[in-house]
Design brief:
The protein has 543 residues and is an alpha/beta fold. The chain has 22 helices and 20 strands. It folds into 3 domains: 141 residues, P-loop containing nucleotide triphosphate hydrolases (Rossmann fold); 185 residues, Rossmann fold (3-Layer(aba) Sandwich); 66 residues, no CATH class.
Length: 543
Amino acid sequence: MLSPASRTVLDVRNMTVKLPPGADRPHAVEDINITVKAGEIVCVVGESGSGKSVTSFNVMGLLPRGLKTTQGEILLEGEDILKASKERLRDLRGTRMAMIFQEPMTALNPVMRVGEQIAEVLQIHTDMSRADRRKRVLEMLNLVHLPDPERLIDAYPHQVSGGQRQRIMIAAALSLDPALLIADEPTTALDVTTQARILKLVREMQERRGTGVLFITHDFGVVAEIADRVVVMQKGRVVEQGTRDEILRRPREPYTKMLIAAVPSLKPPPATKATGAVMLSAHDLSKTYGKKTFLFGRGRVVHAVKSVNIEVRRGETLGIVGESGSGKSTVARCISRLIEPTGGKIEIAGQDMSKLTASGLRDLRRSVQVVFQDPYRSLNPRRPIGASIIEGPVNFGLSKAEAVKRARKLMVDVGLSADALDRYPHQFSGGQRQRICIARALAMEPVLLIGDEPVSALDVSVQAQVLELLAEVKKKFDLALLFITHDLRVAAQICDRVAVMKQGEIVEQGPTEALFANPQHPYTRELFEAAPGRSYMETVDAA
């Protein structure tokens, strides 16, 4: 724990940021007061739209156009950032404060080598020679525990994994020993083992360098794992703040209690065995990339999926869990025929997909529908959502009038207004957009619904609502549901059975309750051990 004498690195005082006219509220954030001391990790939590990211971006001097700070101070080691010139802000970024963004692939330049991107910070802010910069980059790559830094320094972002890209971002951010590190949802899209490594790394670097960390997150497992203090935001205001134990064990505000209650438990609810007809059956499913060639000899062969055997019945949810690169999404894409499997047999409602003609395969495609991870990218931003929902049924012969009638009913089924079909995707929240994607999938009257990380980008409260909705529609429409996730808590709450994948193979599968109570494979046990804040949140759940 920190000593009372620890110096204050960041002091946000009465900060208010005004939204443009026509917004849903006058201010993005209002009267915000947050402090971060040296060597302290302060987690800011809240739903989308609570003002978390606006706060962090304003601290960095990166407020989006159209937003304006109307009052308050942002003191970085006593210097008011709001009064700093553009040149001074440029000097402060990297030297005294730095930021890690949510998606490292978009934050990194895809045409620059990894080492060049870290060295760029040193080149801008120091007079180090080229050789000294390379030496410093290698030192930072070693500090963030990246394998083979001498090779990786010359790699491009697409040649390294998501977790490694995030470590590269941390190395760049900390290369000049800033006093303040801002991390904006840096582990949201990562699997549990990679997430655990990144959180451990942030804690290590913070302890080693005495850096103050402002960590933006909606994951209370992350909060339990690393937070010294917690700030809870709702609709642009700080509603509660205190130590980790005060917020997680003794929350005062109803909003905070609601957020904590929405965190899915690792203890699965009792489930009844499904007895419906088998809607999906995959035997010895495999997918291989690359091949040997006559001219160039042995090529690189990657076995993305190896001899996978699964089945899902009507009214049942099978979850596939595993790390990034385990092959779980490749299985889903093979089943939905977004990619062609290399080998094996896939049957949908008893029909062998490999024996179907092109027209037969087209007809069967309507029986398998997918809900993807990012609902905004899944919907055409230039078309009303009604047009997106009716497009599939109309293409398969349903009249437009009947398709619209079906769309209006489905909007009600997913908890939205039937009169909203003429609105555009940007006019809905993230959770509402995912509901629209579910309605679009249901419009095709499928027998198998595939959810490929459909709630991983959502806040805990919205996540809980979408999981409840998926359970409801599965029951109402008697669907078979194949659910891809890296979040064990989510799998515990929605899946009747779970299959654990590692390096393209299923290493263990069985009823969720039995598997979670007594995992047999060492890899499965490793996944459970890596779940952030597992032991702490179990005590919170018990209380």
